[in-house]
């Protein structure tokens, strides 16, 4: 199993000479245009009221897409694994209440059909970036796919993973950098902000950044989000929770509603400084 | 999603005070006893004659278990993906011819049942170590599981992955160290031989080593295999092919039959030096 | 030799509760204030005319400090090792011509005195960040010190390295993030933009970023520079050469004069978006 | 500063076609022959009685070379930095008492002359592997040099560092693998046992292993030492202290005299299994 040589090996994902950016549309939201897309919401879906409240916070801050995990990939088998189908229903309720489309993770190829019937966008999580059966099913579903980078996935392997989705007939892929695993323990992961610049050159597809999982700590999320926008990211995926201390997972990295609003304002200013908007 | 704290978080996998080694049996083969188990065979199953020839090489050198991939996890969607069910049949034919049981990788939770009906042991590959639906299905199958370490997996995350299998009622798990991803490009991966010693203390389950994927280069496979045995590994998983240059994958790291025999002899001497056998 | 526990172990470097940012002054230039400092110049000093031309480019673009290596730390003993004292004279000539102070690397504790007599600021390079005799001499010199991060130095080790300088009576230390070594080969190093945010909280001293060594490729330098400013960096250290293709080292990452001007303009816009200037 | 291409770039260090192993002699001890060299002693020299007692333990177990640090490279400026010249005198006393030659670290190019007058072999430590002025001085001293790998050094960079010593006219270099920095926190460093096999092919110079710093934990030192011998290492550098709990540094990884004897016996058996001795 030799090293991939993308370009030749990823003909659908690689930007051909002169090829313009591909726009990926999720309902009324466009990834890859001049506007930086802000996605917000909790790590895990916990209840309908929680999701509806979070959705209102996201919308009020200028966010246009909602996130929330119905199935959670947990390192440990005894941790909370998500509400499953019930979580999907809560996400749909929040969509009805606010008009925001939503993205949610799918872990198991057998769940793709069920999730695709309800969700506006499928998330393939970090641990699944080389889950090839899952990538094929996500491709076959035709739904837009948010493809997170693995903690130790090279840019070339990541491009090859996306090629699985496109080879199944689905060109609606958005890459999401979320930090890589390195020797440095100061933050949860090391945000590889350079990968945004590299991907924008290597592929025609949009690239966004998840500063919450990279930082793992509320104090650093906004600085990483600003850096991502300055480096050319087409969007941000940010965890926010109306009551972070009560969150069932990722409490330490979830912004309060006020912090989320400040992040949106601060990143909007950076976006405008480089000729974009948020 | 906090860091796992194995011991408390992996009650079934963690060695309790005074708990002896667990023996995992695969047909007539025992992992975890005084004899170091030698597993051999090609990376990918290509044909019945190839598998039968390889099986004879393995048996002649003292190997007691056969390996071969029917489904191959490939970084690139356009590379050879394995023969699937036909590959299983070739493995079964080689087993009939030599009496050697076989281990083969399963990638998709939907394939576990089919593979478990034929194979003697299920391999969960590096890219699947945190594929939780797959781990649960492998656990439910009741078949012995060979759990490879991911390129990016810490020892603690690896223990937690095994806990998914045991929590599903299946205690027959064998860990397989196969090199981790580091900054060093000299070899394909960096064999973390220390993880063998750490696992032998942290868990009661057997631990083996795959020197072929760690090295990625025939010249270094035997040195790594000897180091693994010296560090306390309960077995070796080694790629061998009767005609490496014609192999459909992993040609550079597949030993010829003669090299495989030399490896077996050399590792046998090291095993005896530390009071074991091979 | 246990792990450092900065805070207690680095009493001079750690920001005490309520302690304001320390300003480090190098001639008329102030690090740590509202203005982001732009440092420019070639990797290696090659001639007096080269340095004078580079200095004019830097000044014209709004840069306020000049860089250039007189002693070069080279991985290979047969590569160009720098002009030594002659290089210092060229840097001084460029300073006279433009009024820009300069920073240059010192590699050997025996050279600190000579360099400190001429240079405005001493650079401790990545490979020297744990060269303790050199850190002590740099501290004793009383000159401002630009302390680059090592390719595999944790933030805590870096803080401890700075403590050596401060413990020698010299509080004028500026940290410089320049990318760390990871598994990802797409760029020369992985810019750890999060370390800027972490350091701004852990220490009262200024923090700048070198996007040139992180990227190793002209195409990505400006994106990384903008990300650094957005994350809160107090300055940028950028390689520029009037004729990059003729450069004796680091040709691939040296900006042309026009590219340098564009970087300055682009980073200035980002700086103003977050309430600073450049 | 491009990537080194050893072979062409390291003509003195690279093994030429057919070139036999170079033997490096330190008094009566030979590195690179059939006998695996066992070096023992404490991390830091603390007193004359401590060194003499340690030397007797080393000699009794079959060790033939003594180690002990007179100058200690410490991450933190306030930690014990070694006894300096007084430490050298204690090492010399232990040599007189037992006949064992000794190796000790030199950190500062200004100390090379003093150390070379007394020591039998100079150690260049991990943090100094790319301290080029120090490498040149060690080369000029003519003394045998033990060159440790840096925590972040690739094999190719390590070969280039040795080339500095040989280029200064000194061919007596012994490489020492001591673990590299990776994402895995289970042990202090990750022993890269594959680097032993790679170096034995790439260079004609001897290669030894320091399992103590790699493990950082007494429980794993012997397993790593055995793995190193099995992989082809020409020697072992092991920390032992007559009273580990009272050691001024590295207490957790120092073997007791009994543990050191067991390590020697166990590694001797492995050495004989591969046709060597210890």
Features:
homotetramer; 278 residues; alpha/beta; TIM Barrel; 8-stranded parallel β-sheet; two-stranded antiparallel ribbon; 9 helices; 37% helix; disordered N terminus
What does this protein look like?
- The structure is a homotetramer of 278-residue chains.
- Chain A is of the alpha/beta class.
- Chain A has a single domain, classed as TIM Barrel (Alpha-Beta Barrel), CATH 3.20.20.
- Helix content of chain A is 37%, strand content 14%.
- Chain A has 9 helices and 10 strands.
- Chain A has helices at residues 48-60, 85-98, 112-118, 132-141, 155-167, 193-202, 211-215, 218-231, 257-273, and strands at 24-26, 29-31, 37-41, 65-67, 102-105, 121-124, 145-148, 173-177, 207-209, 235-239.
- An 8-stranded parallel β-sheet of chain A has the order 9-8-7-6-5-4-3-10. A two-stranded antiparallel sheet of chain A has the order 1-2.
- In chain A, strand 3, helix 1 and strand 4 (65-67) form a beta-alpha-beta unit.
- In chain A, helix 1 (48-60) runs parallel beside helix 2 (85-98), helix 4 crosses helix 5 (155-167) and helix 8 (218-231) packs parallel to helix 9.
- The longest helix of chain A has 17 residues, at 257-273.
- Chain A is globular and about 50 Å long.
- In chain A, 68% of the residues are buried.
- Residues 1-6 of chain A have low confidence and may be disordered.
- Chains A and C meet through helix 6, helix 8 and helix 9 of A and helix 6, helix 8 and helix 9 of C.
